[in-house]
Amino acid sequence: QVQLVESGGGLVQAGDSLRLSCGTSRLSFHYYSLAWFRQAPGKEREFVAAISWSGGHTPSADSVKGRFTISRDNAKNPVYLQMNSLKPEDTAVYYCAVRDNRGSDYAASTRATDYNVWGHGTQVTVSS
């Protein structure tokens, strides 16, 4: 099974930016959706942003719209999460996940239960 590795997390001040990366253990492979989720201490895991295989569907949570952007290069690996104007409430462990067993090449899922491969997460801490 393919493995996912997140990187790019760290400690920053409010208003700063970070770029997270999600890389795979294979040079290339097909997936239907790739998404970022996050979980803060004492809170449930929540959806952040996702991208379809086609690249044409990139849904994101209302809480990050206008600040976070999911993207990738032509090789479709790795996938990035550009996070701008970070807020203390963005503090969480950020997880990359892939849905590669079923789905649509043109529609990215926002449901955690649809994803079958998960990375181990990268910590993002935003101070005020």
Q: What is shown here, in short?
A:
The protein is 0% helix and 43% strand. The chain has no helices and 10 strands.
Task: Note down, in words, how this protein is organized.
The mean pLDDT is 95. A hairpin with a 6-residue loop joins strand 6 (68-72) and strand 7 (79-83). This protein has strands at residues 4-7, 10-13, 18-24, 33-39, 46-52, 68-72, 79-83, 92-99, 117-118, 122-127. It is mainly β. The strands form two sheets. Strands 2, 4, 5, 8, 9 and 10 form a six-stranded mixed β-sheet that branches. Strands 1-3-7-6 form a four-stranded antiparallel β-sheet, with no helix packed on it. It is built from no helices and ten strands. It is globular.
Total DSSP helices: 0
List unreliable stretches of 5+ residues: none
Number of strands: 10
Give the C-alpha Rg. Answer: 14 Å
Q: Return the string of H and E elements.
A: EEEEEEEEEE
Given the C-alpha coordinates, what overall shape results?
A: globular
Overall pLDDT confidence = 95
Instruction: Name the beta content range.
Output: 35-45%
Helices, strands, pairings?
Elements: E1 4-7, E2 10-13, E3 18-24, E4 33-39, E5 46-52, E6 68-72, E7 79-83, E8 92-99, E9 117-118, E10 122-127
Parallel strand pairs: 2-10
Antiparallel strand pairs: 1-3, 3-7, 4-5, 4-8, 6-7, 8-9, 8-10
